[in-house]
Design a protein that fits this description.
Elements: E1 2-7, H1 11-22, E2 27-30, E3 47-49, H2 65-76, H3 82-91, H4 96-101, E4 106-107, E5 120-123, H5 126-140, E6 144-146, E7 151-157, E8 160-166, E9 169-171, E10 174-176, E11 179-188, H6 197-204, E12 218-219, H7 228-235, E13 240-241, E14 247-253, E15 274-277, H8 291-294, H9 298-303, E16 310-314, E17 330-332, H10 335-342, H11 346-359, E18 360-361, E19 374-375, E20 394-406, E21 409-410, E22 417-420, E23 423-430, H12 448-467
Helix pairs in contact: 1-5, 1-12, 2-3, 3-12, 10-11
Organism: Pseudomonas donghuensis
InterPro entries: CobZ, FAD-dep_OxRdtase_2_FAD-bd, FAD-oxidoreductase_2, FAD/NAD-bd_sf, Succ_DH/fumarate_Rdtase_cat_sf
Keywords: FAD, Flavoprotein, Oxidoreductase
Length: about 475
């Protein structure tokens, strides 16, 4: 019998598998995706938000615990478990050496991401390189890895894990039978339900305009997170936490692919211009805060607009101050022409921009600080980086909501145990997106998802090894394996 079974193939799952193996347990990892698509949403990431009290290698200045906590508190509106959040924050300060032991390399922040140079450590080669490094380390340590192995059912004895079932599937033209896999302990890290269109429709329902908003969502993350295991745990009576409509949802280019668009589809110039809906009207403060703290609210904002459609409008003054999108924008030398190209109501669009321009009170513009450029007498206001759009050619990027991962998940505690009626399972644990809702009730700040996955993946791995008889939960962290 396997000691520890890990279900999932992203950052949290890999951290759990590596920690359990370092503790001496035999480990099997089940990745539902084919090998070429392994890694879940982690393959689309690029950095980790890190607490540090002084400059550290790629991290400048300091980012202390309390500031990190306040940033998280602000974006979640207080909908977070402080105890678990602080575990994540503190763990982010000392995990990088362990990550380097398993082949992960870091680099200074990119020139278009200077806002997070102090707070976030960037992966050399991005999330794909991190995932590949972890898989290489797992293979060297003897972790058994199975691909195309989506778990469809869990067998329990009360709250105790007994076995997992892989459903029938077709791989490379061959029909494979269902399998039952027993283990002494199990870690669930199979992601949310963002790629389950039916579940999204169920969660979001129909709006007052008779639209089904989720029908217009793009899935910025992996196509393989369909929530099969999450739904099964719900049916088995596991304790859940979170709102099914809350998610890491970003305003992305409306021309992005339906699945796996990743980070390159994000539109990062929102704070440097204005955003209008298809009626040519603004609907939110584009300059509320630094983009890394605010980019993940814009998906929900766009989701609330007619047709779940919006447009980010800039002029030439914004160029060179944001990460350029993968698709070119629509350009025009006049506002009227831009509106016509976008098929927006010309009169209303021009009125919106002219009212904004007239309301701008330009002080000292500084896109790297919360500057004093703001609007007066305008609703909604723009509180920072407000400059009149007067330098053609004007440029527009079409926006739609892009879902990265959903927040509905399993309730847990500081041991990462799955709970049933308030009681912790003795040998079933959870990590990553399947429990992120404990920390992220709503909102997002750049790099926090990887921090949650790394912290609770490592905790779950240690706890699963302990449940299998290899460590006591109070033991110190196992020594780094030689890799």
């Amino acid at each position: 019998m396997i000691d520890v079974l890990v279900i999932g193939g992203g950052n949290a799952a890999l951290c759990a598998a590596l920690m359990a193996r370092e503790a001496g347990a035999s480990v099997m990892l089940l990745e539902g995706a084919p090998k070429i698509w392994r890694g879940g949403n982690s393959q689309h990431t690029r950095n980790l938000r890190c607490m540090h009290d002084a400059p550290q290698d790629v991290l400048v200045d300091a980012y202390p615990e309390e500031e990190y906590w306040q940033d998280l508190l602000k974006v979640t509106g207080g909908i977070t478990n402080e105890k678990l959040a602080r575990i994540v924050i503190r763990a982010s300060s000392n995990c990088r050496d362990w990550m380097r032991c398993h082949g992960v390399h870091f680099q200074p922040s990119l020139s278009g991401a200077l806002h997070v140079a102090r707070t976030n450590a960037f992966f050399m080669g991005g999330g794909k390189a991190l995932v590949n490094a972890y898989f290489r380390s797992a293979e060297r340590l003897g972790i058994k890895i199975r691909y195309n192995a989506q778990v469809t059912d869990i067998e329990l004895k009360g709250a105790e894990f007994v076995a997992a079932y892989i459903g029938e599937r077709e791989v490379d033209g061959q029909r494979l039978p269902a399998e039952r896999i027993q283990a002494k302990a199990c870690v669930l890290a199979a992601g949310g339900f963002e790629s389950n269109r039916a579940w999204l429709r169920e969660a979001w329902g129909q709006n007052e305009r008779g639209e089904w908003p989720s029908d217009n969502f793009l899935i910025r993350g992996t196509r393989f997170n369909t929530g099969v295991l999450l739904r099964r745990m719900q049916n088995l009576g596991a304790d859940f936490i979170g709102d099914p409509t809350q998610a890491h949802m970003v305003a992305i280019d409306a021309r992005a692919p339906l699945y796996d668009g990743g980070i390159c589809t994000r539109i990062d110039c929102v704070s440097l211009g204005v955003v209008v809906n298809r009626d040519g009207e603004r609907f939110y403060d584009e300059g509320e805060d630094f983009w890394p703290k605010r980019y993940a609210i814009w998906g929900r904002l766009v989701a609330g607009q007619p047709g779940q459609q919006a447009y980010s409008i800039i002029d030439q003054q914004a160029l060179g101050r944001f990460m350029p999108p993968v698709f070119p924008g629509t350009k025009a030398n006049s506002l009227e022409d831009l509106a016509r190209q976008l098929k927006l109501p010309v009169t209303q669009f021009v009125k919106t921009i002219e009212q904004y321009n007239a309301a701008c009170r330009v002080g000292t513009f500084d896109h790297t600080a919360l500057d004093n450029c703001h609007t007066e007498g305008l609703t909604p206001a723009k509180t920072h980086w407000a400059r009149p759009l007067v330098k053609p050619p004007f440029c527009a990027y079409p926006l739609k909501p892009g879902v990265t991962f959903t927040y509905l998940g399993l309730a847990t505690d500081d041991t990462a145990a799955v709970h049933f009626n308030g009681e912790a399972s003795p040998n079933l644990f959870v990590a990553g997106e399947m429990m992120a809702g404990n920390v992220l009730g709503k909102g997002y700040t750049a790099g926090i998802g990887m921090a949650i996955g790394t912290a609770f993946g490592r905790i779950a791995g240690v706890q699963a090894a302990a449940a299998a008889g290899f460590l006591t939960p109070s033991s110190t962290e196992p020594q780094h394996a030689a890799v």
